[in-house]
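Good morning,

Both structures are done.
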Amino acid sequence: MFLYTNYTAAFTLKDNIIIGISYPIHRKLLFYINTHEPKGIIITGTGFKDASTVKQTIHQLKTLKPGYSPLIAIDQEGGRVTRIKKGVSKFPSFLNIAQSNSSRYAESLAYQRGKELKALGIDIILGPVLDVNTVTANPVIGDRSFGVDPKLVSELGRATIRGLERAGLLPVAKHFPGHGHTSKDSHLALPIVKLDKAELRTVHISPFADAIYAGLPAVMISHVVYTE
């Protein structure tokens, strides 16, 4: 994963790379982190089952060497995509939240979730999901999306972003330009989508565009090929 900041004369690759780790961290990986100082580190689901383990690991990483404090990222959407299983509150899926049709509710939940993660030392949250789930059999998005209405996805997505930012997190909306019109899991195969450009823009890209205009700091790219 790349985190683009600026392109000054002092630009180095390490300033724009985030690496993933599992638990326990292998000594060779710790040596790599200590030597190369990647900009950030993603807490993956492997081994990190409780909040105390996550907090201890983050403290270890942020005190590894003087002057180096990596940005820590995590996937903690709520619903079925929850890397930390114990020691934190359980939050509903985005589709469940959408049933309330309330941006205030969405923002409140995001703020609560964000405060818990910030207390553990998390800096970046990989979310919210802004995919418009136009294929009901979509195996990878489904209830991770706010639904099939791009306007509702946009509204609740922006509310979620506001809540996360109020909690002190940097949100990374996903999966641009949209992963909602697929019937394949992109973790297992490369989805190829034939979709009219106008529909792509007005349905799938529009929630991302709205969020970006509102100040969204970052997006995650989808593993999808659009043929048009």
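Second structure follows.
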Amino acid sequence: MAQNHMDILMPKLHDICLAIINEVKNLRSAVSCAAMATLGDMYVHLQRAMDSEVEGTARVLLHKASEANTFIRQGANFALGHMVQSCTPTRVMNALLVGGLSHRNAAVRSCTAQHLERLAEVMGMARLLSGKKDLTDRFLIAVSKLAVDPAQEARHHGRNILRNVATNGDFAKMWDKFAPRKERESLREVISKVNLKERNI
């Protein structure tokens, strides 16, 4: 339907997404996986038309990333991957940060970091470090938190992003302006290694 009947789908998109979200929460793994696959298809075929539903759908998918069932986790990751590739990047970033950055569950934070790393590649470092309000500041604060996260996987992705972004010419100025002082001190060595590598020292 998302591919061939957008005229039928769009007027009731919000209600349809709410119904799918409820099915994602279904205790039967087959039902939940099918619902997540449906969200993935909707991201791919509706793309920016799904922007208004990104925050709500991302939240339930991130939550599923903490499940013990491997198929559930994979389903959530596949759907989130489609979201990152298909919807408006700034909307996606907001959804990831709101839904997972400060979550108590380490698996959810790790999933958030993984998809934020991919989103950074999609958006490009120049855009992320443009200094635009509610973009550069939120991005750098999030990266600084993930790079010192107690969870190894979240920290790994956070530091990958940091290494990539630190090579941009605008990084130092924006980092000093927006990153929290505590995290700046903790990550000084990581950034120094990037700078040495850039100078081939």
